Predict the 3D structure of the following.
Amino acid sequence: MMKMEENSVYHVPVLFEESIQALEIQDDSVIVDVTFGGGGHSKEILKRLGDDGVLVAFDQDEDALDNIPEDDRLVFVESNFRFLYNWVKYHDLLPVDGLLADLGVSSHQFNEGERGFSIREEGVLDMRMNQQSDLTAYKVVNDYPEKELFRVFNSFADLKNVKKVVFTISGARRSSKIKTTTQLVDLLIGLVPHKKRNQFLAQVFQAIRIEVNDEMTALTEMLEQCTKVIKPGGKLVVIAYHSIEDRLVKNFIREGNFEGQAEKDVFGVAHTPFKAENKKPLVPTDEEIERNPRARSAKLRIAIKK
């Protein structure tokens, strides 16, 4: 089995070998990596491509620019993957043989405290993946009306005490702004028993991060474009880390939409653009979880374009 190059400084890819193999890379393949990050997947894809192969890599985080390898076969797009179709068409690479999406937050983004993603690191409430965007976690926490906070936490987290979270935040910000991750953690940490605190706080941060980056809308837009971007017989490979995004991916692969029910023609035949290769998602082994605890929630889904 081919081993991944050490890239732990920036990101440790999850389900690395499984996701690379799922792409079934040939010498002349055109592959898209919509989540470049530390470049771990992209560098391995380039190893397996021949001289006539092409890799298109997307990332909107300017920190990822430092990880771009010098390779004439690489087309790097500094953009959100929601613009997938336009960029691949612009580079005259339609249709492609495979697409890989490793969703979620990179190890680098978690470890850089000043980015505001981590419940354990001190930093301003930022959480922007695109550091040029206007909406920050600070604005969500301090400026969103209570109604909007309810929407965020109900939609993007599995919390049982949303009302307490919203009222605690709205009550505290009346007297002074909540500026840092530590202030938010200290404010909310007493709302749940000690053994549940990490999971609870991670859910709160997850919901805010998804809102800041409009992640679910971007994901649905990208998946819908895959029907035009990936050629028949091509592969769609997606690693998801929480139930909300995984449900969207599962429904899209199985039903061709995000509602979980396939559209049928007048004869009752469902026309779905992809066929799932694995009925159940692949998950990390116990050994991988022990090496990288962040892999615990990962689910890998593989589909082939009809």
In short: The chain has two domains: 16-107+215-305, 110-213. The chain has a mean pLDDT of 92.
